[in-house]
Amino acid sequence: MKRRRIAIVGAGFSGAAVAAQILKRRRAPDVVLIERGRRFGPGLAYGGPERAHLLNVRAANMSVFPDQPDDFVRWLNRRQRRDHATLFAPRPHYGAYLEDVLDRAARRAWGRLKRVRGVAIACRMVEPGWVVELEGGGTIEADAVVLATGNAASVMPSVFESGGVAVLDAWNPEAVRRMRRGESALMIGVGLTMIDLALTLSRDARAGPIYALSRRGLLPRAHLQDPAPAAVTTLALPSDLSEALHVFRREVRLMAEKGEPWQHAVDRLRAQTPDLWRRLTLEQQERFLRHLRPWWDVHRHRFAPEIAARVAELQASGRLRILSGEIVSAKRGSRGGFELQHRQRGSLVRHRMEVQRVINCTGSSRDVTNSADSLMRQLLDDGLARAHANGLGLDTDGDCRVISASGEPHATMVTLGPLTQGVFWESTAVPEIRVRAALLADLLCG
Ligand SMILES: Cc1cc2nc3c(=O)[nH]c(=O)nc-3n(C[C@H](O)[C@H](O)[C@H](O)COP(=O)(O)OP(=O)(O)OC[C@H]3O[C@@H](n4cnc5c(N)ncnc54)[C@H](O)[C@@H]3O)c2cc1C
Q1: DSSP letter for each residue of 6-48
Q2: pTM to 2 decimals?
Q3: Is the CATH number 3.90.25.10 carried by domain 158-221+303-360?
């Protein structure tokens, strides 16, 4: 009998977690993991070499397997002989852990794991399964396909392109390494990507000032030194966005009166968020994205306390300056640098500034309709997938089955991770993705 085969496109955390989960199943099918990068497992988030870049979730919550929550901590402890449970581990360690998870899964499985290095450029339905086409001509036949392509390249404000300003990509370490010592930089975006880069650049004591700009200039908040206690009760949140916000704010105020930090409230909300999100109307989701998202992001996606201390030092010394507002004009300046006009939020006054580099730190774009990626374009153009109406990723049903342009979910094409943010909102971090990976393995293995 022909063995079943599942093709997974993308071998970052999401792809690796689904592969490991499938291979754990009894009589697991074969898995073909397709990755355009050099390594299988780390993906974009955990593939960098910098040990100063820490995970933003404690090690105790970063196991690939929800039913073996100490897997990552035990892996760390075995290597470093200390207890890492409450620590924020270096991201390169996590990348190595993910590679090891795949190796272990492959050794023990009934089905085979085949790692294919290549770029998937199309995925066509050839009944009863799929054919994935690779750049350069190869094809892979599969009974089911998992789209785990993850974080897509971000989009830059057009002002830079029209001004002839070359913008470096923060996720391209080669481009950033080519920066000359002592150069000043403007980073577009004030989130966790900007912080990674500020830490890297500021290691050079001569680095010029680093400016970081976003519309509101909101910096992510820090995690507490001690982890939040497990939730005792869940907050009953109404399905209406304004009412839910009202109830949540009241809860935070009551907690503050009892001396409990707001971080606990945000962490407790996390398990409920996908359900609440799915109960909101499209109009309410859009309202959230327009008005509340920046606030949500900085309170929800926090960084390790030790990183917070370093960022505070950089700010206090003036080496890192956070700006709010926008760049209204940009052009090439003297000495290879760029001349920019910055308008501060809430003001009409423009300030002239000169920097040697502009770096895009805006993070991943979730708007697939503008995607330059061949696979995504083909799936949308052929009507095999459709964008989520709220503009975040692909539309799927509650089981992560990709919905076609005609509104039908495919039984054998699924997705997870950042591409499902429109459906679940809470879908980009390990604690959520690993649960979906396990559910998808159940679904695909019948
Ligand atoms: C810098 C950074 C740090 C983060 N830190 C944390 C953290 O500490 N804790 C946490 O819980 N979450 C963190 N996250 C959130 C992160 O999104 C998830 O944890 C997770 O990495 C998402 O994995 P993914 O596989 O979906 O995406 P990605 O990591 O983006 O991986 C997708 C992979 O698919 C490959 N790919 C894409 N298209 C194709 C194609 N057509 N053909 C072949 N291969 C393809 C890419 O090369 C890539 O390797 C972080 C995110 C970033 C960006």
Answers
A1: EEEE--SHHHHHHHHHHHHSTTPPEEEEEESSS-SS-TTTS--
A2: 0.94
A3: no
